[in-house]
Amino acid sequence: MKYLLDQGLSRSTVKYLLEMGIESEHVGGLGMSTASDAEILEEGRKRHAVVVTLDADFHALLALSDALLPSVVRIRIEDKRRPNSTYHSTCRSGCKERP
Question: Which domains does the chain have, with CATH numbers?
Answer without folding.
Answer: 2-77 (3.40.50)
